[in-house]
Specification:
46% of the residues lie in helices and 21% in strands. It is α/β, with parallel strands linked by helices and 258 residues long. It has one domain (3-179, 213-255): TIM Barrel. Strand 3, helix 3 and strand 4 (87-92) form a beta-alpha-beta unit. It starts with a strand and ends with a helix.
Length: 258
């Protein structure tokens, strides 16, 4: 099975972030992630996770370079004191010039910080670009079948650049319990309202909720994750808890433990 990471929303209370990160490391997850939405700085909760852990890799997925340039982002990483040897610094971009921004941003950040650069990729051209310049590529809202197709494009980009292919990582939304399906669908609809994600779902031919897992029990989750065997190198369970509480986050850490 792929390695398994654990991911929380950037707005999660610090106590829940710290507790989940600590528990994820103890349970054997390979990485711990936060996102970086436009209104919140994902580096801040990632710094809280860093303080609560010692070994687990720390990912932010992802910082949009059309909003925050490489110089500012590098300064933010240093200001938060993130451990560069554990950092998986996720970047992406959209709109005109996105491919060039990702190429130049990845080069600048790697040269400045020396950490691993993760490139977010949805469309075919960005998948190939991620293969050219990324240490890892992060897929988001993909079915396992579409992830396999996208991974081939990443490998094509790496081969064209004469380099080893990057690690393939996928965010897989996870909700647990009686209201799991509703939470997953609501999260998906928020993304569907973003034009480039709407295009992605149309290209993939699947609804957002079809890419995640709405499980009634940990056994249901284990069965659903079997579909990712051979598709990616690492699945990050991007959790949708019933509440922001510590207990609800720890329940999901336990349910998805590798």
């Amino acid at each position: 099975m792929p390695r398994r990471g654990f991911g929380v929303a950037a707005g999660t209370p610090v106590a829940a972030v710290e507790a989940a990160a600590r528990a994820a490391e103890a349970a054997g997850y390979s990485s711990f992630w936060t996102n970086h939405p436009g209104s919140l700085d994902g580096l801040a909760p990632l710094a809280a996770a860093a303080r609560a852990t010692e070994r687990v890799d720390l990912g932010v997925g992802v910082v949009p370079l059309h909003v925050r340039d490489a110089t500012d982002l590098a300064g933010g990483v240093r200001a938060h004191g993130l451990p560069l040897d554990r950092l998986l610094l996720g970047v992406g971009s959209a709109g005109r010039g996105a491919l060039a921004r990702v190429r130049s941003g990845a080069d600048a950040l790697r040269g400045d910080l020396g950490c691993r650069i993760v490139v977010a990729a949805l469309g075919p051209r960005m998948c190939r670009t991620a293969g050219e310049v990324g240490d890892a590529v992060l897929f988001n809202w993909l079915t396992p079948a579409f992830a396999r197709q996208s991974a081939e494009l990443v490998r094509e980009g790496a081969a064209a650049a004469g380099r080893e292919p990057p690690a393939i990582v996928a965010y897989v939304r996870l909700a647990l319990g009686e209201t799991a399906r509703r939470r997953l669908e609501e999260e998906g609809e928020r993304y569907r309202r973003i034009p480039f994600y709407a295009s992605h779902f149309e290209r993939m031919g699947a609804a957002p909720a079809d890419t995640g897992v709405a499980a009634r029990s940990p056994a249901d989750l284990a069965e659903a994750l079997e579909a990712w065997e051979g598709a990616v190198d690492e699945v990050v369970l991007r959790v949708l808890p019933e509440s922001d509480s510590v207990d609800d986050h720890l329940e999901l850490v336990r349910a998805g433990a590798p």
